[in-house]
Write a structure and sequence with these properties.
7 strands; alpha/beta; Rossmann fold; five-stranded parallel β-sheet
């Protein structure tokens, strides 16, 4: 209440309360609270994002640009004649030096290489005999697939294409289980969870997205898992390729993308796929490192992919590796490769055969003698024989399997289709 006033005198001013403080006073108080002399002792948090490529480049003592860009020349440890490539000739750049794998590892890889080649060639014969519906051979590029499987750990996942049967076998899957898909069975042949290997993808590039999804889930769960996604040069023109690499880079996922550049997407040459200097150069656009390696040099592949998996496991992924290789045979048994490439071109790559290269190196190192070589060849032939015998037996097919395993609970439409097929079959039998 105001103090009483005498007649004619000015009324006494009211004392303002905090709630009735003038806006100007509130503003001045706010300014004073944030004045320079009112120092906040709380340390500011560093909110700068951690970029894996930048962190990895520090380990190698080079700039992020030098780390992310592939080496000037493709990484090669063994020349086509099996001789080690001297450092002086290869000219390794800082951050792109790779050690020679151990002799023990190379011997193990060589055996898988020989087995893979024998199964490749056996499958092509089975197709001609009508025992398999189709087979996309990887004759000539088996080294990429063997190395991809061998560089992974027990908890890591492999995501192969339809051409990567050798990679699936090198991961431990029985060839009989792998080939059931190409015979036309209703199932994929093996349990993906048991081997940490996805079913071979026929649609182009879809497996890259699956690999990214598994890696993302593993990271969210705190699991020690790296995924390796395989594709060909033609896949780099697909939208799924961009989406997979971009998502993996943004979320910094432990994914190693392996592009097997064999020069052709069926009949389309690489020159019609990209104008980039190399496919490995595509990596830098996503903020990840790219590397280019001789895809017929098993030693170089084991070293490059091995380091790539290690970097992903350390949280410095994703990464992109381009392997320069060649498909010696046709795209599939339904393809006539003489219509789009010359025989002289194929002959040039015969001299770069990954098996011959590794055999010469191991022999020169006194790690592979005639007896050991014969033992490996016998093992490969035994596996081919088992495959022949299994494929000679016609499987008992039930047409109703077309509907049983689509959904856990069949839909109304599936039941109608199943009943229709059953009726048609009964009429034929009658």
């Amino acid at each position: 209440m105001s103090e009483p006033t005498s007649p004619g005198s000015e009324p006494a001013a009211e004392t303002p309360t905090p709630d009735s403080e003038a806006p100007e006073a509130q503003e001045n108080s706010a300014i004073e609270a944030t004045a320079p002399n009112a120092v906040d002792e709380t340390p500011a948090e560093d909110t700068a994002p951690v970029i894996p490529a930048v962190e990895a480049s520090k380990n190698f003592g080079i700039t992020p640009e030098a780390y992310m860009l592939p080496a000037t020349s493709e990484i090669q440890l063994l020349a086509p004649d099996g001789q080690p490539v001297p450092d002086s000739e290869q000219g390794p750049e800082p951050g792109h030096e790779y050690p020679m794998p151990s002799t023990e590892q190379l011997l193990k890889a060589y055996e898988k290489l020989v087995v893979g080649r024998r199964i490749n060639d056996q499958n092509m014969a089975l197709v001609r005999q009508g025992r398999m519906a189709v087979y996309p051979s990887s004759h000539g590029q088996e080294a990429c697939q063997v190395a991809a499987a061998m560089c992974l750990g027990a908890n890591d996942w492999l995501f192969p294409t339809y051409r990567d049967s050798v990679a699936v076998m090198s991961r431990g899957v029985d060839p009989l289980e792998v080939m059931s898909t190409f015979r036309g069975d209703w199932h994929g042949g093996f349990d993906p969870r048991e081997y940490k290997v996805s079913i071979q993808a026929t649609p182009l590039t879809t497996q890259l997205l699956h690999a990214v999804g598994v890696a993302h889930a593993a990271k969210l769960r705190g699991e020690d898992t790296v995924t390796l996604a395989m594709c060909g040069d033609g896949a780099t023109s697909e939208g799924d390729f961009h989406e997979a690499l971009n998502f993996a880079a943004v979320f910094q996922l432990p994914v190693l993308f392996l592009v097997q550049n064999n020069g052709y997407a069926i009949s389309v040459p690489l020159s019609s796929q990209t104008h980039a200097p190399t496919l490995a150069h595509k990596a830098v656009g996503y903020g990840m490192a790219g590397e280019r390696v001789d895809g017929n040099d098993l030693a170089a592949l084991l070293s490059v992919l091995g380091r790539g998996v290690d970097l992903c496991r350390q949280g410095k992924g994703p990464l992109l590796v381009e392997a320069m290789t060649y498909r010696m045979q046709a795209h599939t048994n339904a393809d006539d490769d003489t219509r789009y490439r010359e025989r002289d071109e194929v002959s040039e790559w015969v001299a770069k055969d990954p098996i011959t290269r590794m055999q010469r190196y191991l022999t020169d190192q006194d790690a592979l003698d005639d007896a050991a070589s014969e033992q490996i060849s016998t093992h490969a032939e035994d596996m081919a024989k088992r495959l022949r015998e299994a494929m000679a037996t016609k499987p008992e097919l039930d047409p109703q399997d077309l509907f049983r395993h689509v959904y856990s609970e069949p839909t109304t439409q599936l039941r109608e289709q199943s009943d229709l097929l059953a009726d048609e079959l009964s009429r034929e039998e009658a």
